Hints:
Layout: E1 3-8, H1 15-28, E2 32-35, H2 52-62, E3 67-70, H3 81-94, E4 99-103, H4 108-111, H5 121-138, E5 144-147, E6 152-156, E7 168-171, H6 175-184, E8 187-190, H7 195-201, E9 206-212, H8 218-228, H9 240-243, H10 247-253, H11 259-263, H12 272-285, E10 289-294, H13 300-310
Helix pairs in contact: 1-2, 2-3, 3-5, 6-7, 12-13
Amino acid sequence: MxxxxxxxxxxxxxxxxxxxxxxxxxxxxxxxxxxxxxxHPWVSKQGxxxxxxxxxxxIAHGTHRLRVGTGVTCPIRRIHPAIxxxxxxxxxxxxxxxxxxxxxxxxxxxxHITGDAWxxxxxxxxxxxxxxxVIRELWKGDEVTHEGVFFRVDEARLYTLPDELPxxxxxxxxxxxxxxxxxxxxxxxxxAPDEEMIEAFGGKPCLGQxxxxxxxxxxxxxxxxxxxxxxxxxxxxxxxQWETKTPELFEExxxxxRPEDVKESVLCSADPAEHLAKIREFADAGFxxxxxxxxxxxxxxxxxxxxxxxxxxxx
Length: 315
């Protein structure tokens, strides 16, 4: 049976709203959630980007059963892995057995802000692997001094640790990411049902994200998805999405994106069978967890729809 989760979009919702949405997701029957960790939204229309670690503290006390993870944190530039190790340990202590750390190689959109050079993709993956090593060493509770290729840690020790350490999930796509996750992580996160990556990963938990825009009026759903998430309609951009620096540059990139382009990537439907089919696509590729990103401000109707029409039919 596939577990169904919810995407807490910090690009679209403020901190207090994210806490409320997490509680509503738990009540609706979602078993887990991932909250995005951004400094900027993709485009200004989305309008938000709160500090995720503050939000997680409130979610810890605003939910009781929901498992929550970052979707995802980049521990290679904007925030040093030693700080992420402390932040994640604290979150796990506040949510015993319910927190997991999702990490990835990041986007220039969020990571350029400290002024450090943005490395090429292969280097970012090497940095991510070393960052995970640093985090795991600090989670042992011993004093750590680390002189690595990319990171230094000087006589650091974490004093606040959870009774149960959180799992680390690696996000990305492609065979190399799957191999990295197999070596260094406890789980995998992806936005594409990539069977080759799953095979490279080696049978650990796999979380797949689907983007939807539920609305009883499907034409309005397409308009909403286009307004709030036009980057879903970008084609042939390759690594451009990971290299672009600002929301304003993304807005230039999407000027020629049409609503029908976004519809190709975002499920704009009020038919539960279509939502179930999309979930099944990931399940057939080997994913055992699927989480849903409802695009736009209308979250209440989405929760009602999934609670009544989709989640009961997952089995």
